[in-house]
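Forum: Protein Structure Q&A
Topic: Joint prediction for protein chains with partners

I've read a bunch of threads here and the consensus seems to be that you should model interacting components together rather than docking separate models afterwards. I'd like to see that in practice. Below is the full input, 675 residues plus whatever partners are listed. Could one of the regulars post the assembled result?
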Amino acid sequence: MSPVDKLKFEKRDDISPLGRTAAIVVALIAAMLVSAILIKLANASPLEAFINLFKGAFGNKRAILETLTKSTPLILTGLATVIAFRGKIWSIGQEGQFFLGAIGGYWAYRIFEGLPAAALVPIVILGAFLVGAFGGMLAGLLKAYFNVDVIISTVMGNYIIDYFLSFMLSGSGPWREPGSYYQQTAEITENAYYPLLFANARIHMGFLIAIACSMIVYLILNHTPFGYQLRAFGSNPRAAKFKGINTNKIIILTMFISGGLAGLAGTGELFGVQYRLRPDLSPGYGYTGIIVAMLAGLNPIGVIPAAILFGALINGSAQMRIATGVPTALTFAIQAIVLLSLLSAQVLTRFRVRRVDHA
Amino acid sequence: MLDSLLQATIIVNILASTVRIATPLLLGAMGELVTERSGVMNLGIEGTMLMSSFIAFLVAFETNSIILAVGAGMLTGALMSLIMAFMASTMKVDQTVTGLSLNLLASGISLFWYRVAFKGTSTESIPTIQTMGSVKIPILGDIPYLGEIFFNQGLLTYLAFIMVPVIAFFLYRTYTGLAIRSLGENPRAVDMKGINVTRLQYLSVIFGGVMSGLAGAFITIGTTVRFLPEISAGRGWLALVIVIAGNWRAGRILLAALLFAFMDAFQLQLQGIGIQIPFQILLAAPYVLAIVVLMGSRARSLAPRNLGIPYIREEG
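Posted by a regular:
Agreed with the consensus. Here's the joint model:
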């Protein structure tokens, strides 16, 4: 009998905070090591690349504020993931709902363009939330009434929304900036801008909205009957049903909120940072949100530091590319490696390894 | 006279494209069928296809050898699915999240590697490769219409269609096939028979990965001279949809794959004749169809009962 047979994996129900922290640290170190190899493959010095990455992200006040700007959509897409994944509803529609939010916000903006900022901005935000939420809710309805897996309907939705936006911005589409060579809308007018928080920095009101949302999601999950039911559904859908929980309602409502949160991320980028709707409004913020949520252990407050970490990665990668020539696409690779290492490292905390003497 | 000839050419054209477009869908779906029958849900096949299509492109570009490129694609598929098998079968990690992370990994690494490998290429000097070309089968290829549709295709296309009965025979008529199917239903029973559950799951997942690798290789070297980021464009996800729509049966998977491919071929033809529908709407059609098909396949009577649930042996 091989030595492996004498080890026994025991499943633990509780994950100690210490174990979770250890898993995160191990995952980040592993991700750094693999990234160093990738940077080496790009013929650059890993140390120099990491130093520039860090400087670009936290080097001065301006860099830090820009990192927070980049983390703003990630907090929201992260929260969108947290609420769905807590119920083991595997939605990966955050990317599409991000764009739905931008579309909804822009749509509302076009209707109410002339209003003063104090009225226009809240309307834009509401429009974004509702359209994003509608997209999420569709996936929820498909699951509840047609048993279509959320994961597949949301992926298909991402592609459909992508093509829809591409049509709206195409030469024959209604939203294309007249005479523009690019796929983009005209710039929005200043009365629709999200207010900036500091002079000389791009960080905007959306950051405060994101922080407020993480508090709200925390309260929903931990202090409402819906939150309790969602968590019960997540840990055992069958048992939840027997307890008399309306599981269809849980799925639909959860996806509604999740889609709305992702929608807020999209509209924040449009009205707070870019000021036009373009197909490249998101460099994958929806997908990064999934990793943010996993790194945060599906904790809505933990999403904030996790989002800042990945916001720093995205922000710092620009200076890394300028200084060392390493493509910024490295950040996507790093994100995925963090997730994979985290999954493996978590196993060590989920299971207690024990020697079996009497085998 | 000329009008009807034109009609016939167009129909033959659409059907021949259908067979060609079905190739990666069929390869991916038949591979995933074996994987899922063993109880593992590999949601990472989109990423597996993407990574394989990139590596196959890279090898074709560097060596000019189609055979090496196809081999590299298969090997990449095997390695990607090895990660899946390790996480699912050995580590017992949640298979959904693992599959997702494989997709993100492929997106990130392929884009990064492409940028590193082809640094400083401008839009005028996009790197290109030789594609595989088609092989006309003697005699059969000369049958009017049918020859053009079925027997004047690439080698990987023939392979994809041959694999349907081969895999069906393997799953339903061989001892190993029976063991794999039992794994998806009742792994404990397989374990008690003295069959190595972990090993069999690894083999099934890796087989699925190699098939996705072939699909990925076909996407680049079988069809196009250049690589684009995210070139797999949801074909891996469609393969997953096809497995569900096909209710985990080989024959119905073939039908479902042909349906999706026909849809795509049809919209390509519509684009070609310049119909007054925005092409973005046409491009979105397969994904809309996917949702509609899934709405109609509510009964998943033949889904493996233990799909996606890690098997943890109980010990005394």
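Strands of chain A lie at 7-11, 351-355.
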